[in-house]
Amino acid sequence: MAAQNPALTPGTPKKHKALTKDLTNGNPMSLILGFSIPLLFGMLFQQFYSLVDTIIVGKCIDANALAAVGSTGSINFLIIGFCIGICSGFSIPVAQRFGAGDYAGMRKMVWNGAWLSLAFAAVMTVVVSLFCGQILRAMHTPDDIYEQAYSYIFVIFLGIPVIYLYNMLSGIIRSLGDSKTPVIFLVLSSVLNIGLDLLFILVFDFNVAGAAYATVISQLVSGVACLIFMIRRFPILRPESKHELFYDAHCGRILCSMGIPMGLQYSITAIGSVILQTSVNNLGTTAVSAVTAGSRLGNFLVCPFDAMGSTMATYGGQNIGAKKTDRIKEGLKACTLLGAAYSAIALLLVFLCGRTLLLLFLHAEDAEIITMAYRFLCTNSLFYFPLALVNIIRFLIQGMGFSRFAMLAGVCEMAARALVGFCIVPAFGFYAIGFASPTAWIFADAFLIPAFFHVYRRTQRLFSQS
Fold it and tell me: Mapping DSSP to helix (H, G, I), strand (E, B) and coil, where does residue 61 land?
């Protein structure tokens, strides 16, 4: 068990102290497992309702509807990924100040992050909603699925404020060491999302837009639940003076220096995905359907890597705040072992059960699409360990406070996917698409591994001088 922080705030009841978790003491492997398992459970549920969206769309509407949703995946990642990255970056100074025991500074970061999130959400919602159609046309979205693609992604973009709400609040809660509570709310919203999918698509006949409405509404519920929980259960976050509520330019610069690079990291990576998706769109609706089905199943399988990444961001932030650099490297070793073990398990699962699992999204008579999706998925799964390293090292570097280095890894991924999309796919066709993400992961690792040792040594020197 992790040691509990002994001094949360004056007068904090003991029952509230257990809600936070100190990751700066104790066995790194045990801490990482204990923190990441609830995160994994939540991410699996998040992917589960994404899978249900896909299953209901593919089974209850048709393959064109499935392709329409899939064709928006990369632009969805580009925009929504930026939102998630911003919120993840804003939570890092919170974790660092919590690890250092600076609770007044932590509260200032929380409130300044809230103001900045509100501003980013308002601007982004207006801009991307206005240019939604032009973006889809620029990606060469096939005409037979354009209208459905537009109706789906437009609703998702209108829900950007909801995405900021949930991700900002859940990030703060995790920064305090509580990885379980956001999962509980995510599970509840997942169940709600499934029910709303069935209601909007089967009963109200909203087509693919119904899946988008279900996603936005369920995320709103989970975000509001996080807000109510924080108000009631975290006295440590209650302002002790009115000045903590106001925007502070210094705090804003710190938050933006963390959040914007992380948001850009997601978006820069996604630019490569947009280029690749454009190449897939040019291959026709069958190729789009195959990549959609394979990607949705693959996203479910790689959830453990995402959980490891989020864990290492909080682990790195708290230990840097406590100036315990030796524990950084110990945590990296422990999490890498976990990543290697799971990579082998996932590879075996894909090769043995991949075709059967793809029937969740497709009908048995869609034999050509199933074969294409299976080969795409198998190619990706051969390179899951490089993906594990990307998540573990990149998020650890971000937690240590070096978001710009992690952003450069996104540039490497973008370059790799663009290379495959522009040069390889036109020459070799559909099966070259399966090598796009593995190439991106290898390019990113080639940068991240030496970058980690650089920032690790730099941090040691800074701490020794101070």
Answer: coil
The tokens 């009115």 sit on which residue? Answer: 242
> 425-444 pLDDT, tens per residue?
887 878 888 888 899 899 99
Distance CA 133, CA 203 (A): 28
Cα distance between residue 408 and residue 422, in whole Å: 21
Phi, psi of 11 (to 5 degrees): 80, 5
Q: Residue 17 has which token pair?
A: 């102290």
DSSP states along 262-294: HHHHHHHHHHHHHHHHHHHHHT-HHHHHHHHHH
Q: Which residues contact 184 (CB under 8 A, 6 or more apart)?
A: none
Q: String of b and e for 54-78 (b: at least 16 CB within 10 Å)?
A: bbbbbeebebbbbbbbbbbbbbbbb
Count how many Cα atoms sit within 13 Å of the Cα of residue 30 in the half-sphere of its side chain: 9
Which positions ≥6 away from 390 have C-beta within 8 Å? 305, 409, 413, 441, 444, 445, 448
Asked if 290 and 71 touch (Cβ cutoff 8 Å), the reply is no
Positive or negative, the Cα torsion across 432, 438, 444, 447? negative
CB 64 within 8 A of CB 285: yes
Q: Is 368 exposed, middle or buried (0-12, 13-18, 19+ CB in 10 A)?
A: exposed
Average pLDDT, the chain: 82
Give the residue extent of every domain in the chain: 22-465
The residue type at 284: G
C-alpha to C-alpha distance for 164 and 85, rounded to whole angstroms = 10
User: 315 with 395: CB under 8 angstroms?
Assistant: no
pLDDT digits (tens, 9 = 90+) for 53-92: 667 776 667 667 777 777 777 778 778 888 888 888 888 8
Helix count and strand count (H, E) for the chain: 19, 0
Query: Is 50 exceeded by the pLDDT of residue 12?
Result: no
List C-alpha distances in Å: 401 to 160, 213, 323, 422.
26, 36, 12, 34
Which tokens in the block code for residue 77?
């990642």
Using CA atoms, how far apart are residues 399 and 321, in angstroms rounded to an integer? 10
